[in-house]
Amino acid sequence: MEVLYNNIPTGVGSKGKLRLGSEDERQLLLKGARWAVEKGFGDKEDLLHTESGGCIEGADPDLISKKAYERGRAQQGTLGSGNHFTEIQYVDEIHEEKIAARLGLFKDQITVMIHTGSRGFGHQVCTDFLEVMAKAVQKYKIDLPDKELACAPFNSPEAQDYLAAMRAAANYAWANRQCIMHWVKESFMQTLNASPTALGMSLIYDVAHNIAKVEEHTINGRKRKLVVHRKGATRAFPPGHPELPLAYKDLGQPVLIPGDMGRASFVLIGTEKAMQETFGSTCHGAGRVMSRHQAIRRAKGRAIYREMEDMGIIVRSAGRETLAEEMPEAYKDISNVVDVVHNAGISKKVAKLRPIGVIKG
């Protein structure tokens, strides 16, 4: 855990080990995880197990503001703060033996889950375009039922510019996770003095969870192109879906649902019912039952890291407040949430993973 914590920059405003020139920045936004692999962070095989091959076409670096570039420059290859984490886990339960075996999962195996995104870069892209959308709503005379909503007609220049900028942010996120995964592997090799072959670490899947994508879905018996927004949601595509990587074409898409740092996370598989009922989507986490401020108040006078150690979980974080915000009781029990998803048939339980070491920003 110490080696991982030293190798992966974490926390608010954390700065990465990468020093990007202006051309590197552009190429990263255009190529995503492919850029990272070209630079030696991981293998080409990783891209075969990544949504969209780790890169969405149609990103336009020229639409990114100077402020977004400034925020993103130092944060590539960093974990960030809040609910983002790198977690060492073990496979506690197998629910679908054959599917688990195809994914390379077995009982008591050690796994690593990484949860992070496009950091301050993506946040700034969103902030910049909220202003654009606020004007677009008035320009196109759109009546929104809630002031928290923002939009523009799909074919408008405002919407097309936003999509091109958002794709750049998605590519930033895929590159970010690819770099962190590479440092995770290096940390294991360094600590255990093991070769990559001896370690046998390989990527199961990398999936987006805060993105809008143009997809084809059947509506009232007719195939239509839609923009599907997944915020805190993730794809759960069924066997045979054309966007699945070859390795999982006959299996369905792996679905990753992380829980809090004290309980569990789950690997599931996508289903046909998800395509029929939820636009091929499922949830991406447990969801909070306490606000961050409530959690900090509840944790006052407690040593959360010690409580976690008593549970057999080693935690490292950039600050005590982060641990307070992220303590297990601040979240719903992930097992209950996943049972709902499983029983609804929108994704199927494959394996339950328990945490043994957690890095929080």
Brief description of this entry?
39% of the residues lie in helices and 19% in strands.
List the helices and strands and how they pair.
Layout: H1 2-7, H2 22-31, H3 33-38, H4 44-47, H5 66-73, E1 85-94, H6 97-103, E2 110-115, H7 119-139, H8 157-192, H9 196-199, E3 210-219, E4 222-231, E5 233-235, E6 254-257, E7 265-270, H10 272-277, E8 281-283, H11 292-298, H12 304-310, E9 314-317, H13 320-325, H14 334-344, E10 347-360
Parallel strand pairs: 9-10
Antiparallel strand pairs: 1-2, 1-10, 3-4, 5-8, 6-7, 7-10
Annotation field: number of helices: 14
What portion of residues belong to β-strands?
15-25%
Percent of residues in helices comes to 25-40%
Termini gap:
13 Å
How is the CATH topology named?
tRNA-splicing ligase RtcB
Secondary-structure element sequence?
Answer: HHHHHEHEHHHEEEEEHEHHEHHE
Report low-confidence residues grouped into runs of 5 or more.
none
Label the CATH architecture.
Alpha-Beta Complex
Instruction: Report the radius of gyration as a whole number of Å.
Output: 20 Å
Q: How many discrete structural domains?
A: 1
Mean pLDDT: 94
Sum up the overall morphology in one term: globular
Number of strands: 10
CATH H-level superfamily title = tRNA-splicing ligase RtcB
Pairing-aware structural class of the strands and helices?
A: alpha+beta
